[in-house]
Amino acid sequence: MNSIYNKEFVVYLLSDRKKNTITGIIECGPELQSDLKSNYKTLVYFDKYRDRKKAVRKKRTLLKMENKDRIMYVKKKNPEWLNLIFTLQEYLKNSIT
Known about the structure:
The protein is an alpha+beta fold.
C-alpha cells in the first residue's frame, strides 16, 4: 500500500495552438490523459515533487500568473515549445515500477 509519503506529484502546463495555457497537478499515474482530450494537447512544462504541499504551492504560483507570464516562464524551460508528453510518460513509467 502506498502512503502519501511515497507518492510523487507532477505540476504541469498544457497549451493549445494559440499558446493559451492551463495548469494542473496529478499524482503519478495516467490521469493526465483525460486533460489531453481537451483542446489543450501540448504538454509544455512539468515538474516533479515528492511533497504535495510544495506541488500545490507551485500550481498556485502558476495559476496566479497571467498567461503571457506563463508563456515567458515556459520559454525559459522549454524554448522550442516542444511537447513533453513522451518525456513525462517515460518518467511516470519509471517511477511507478
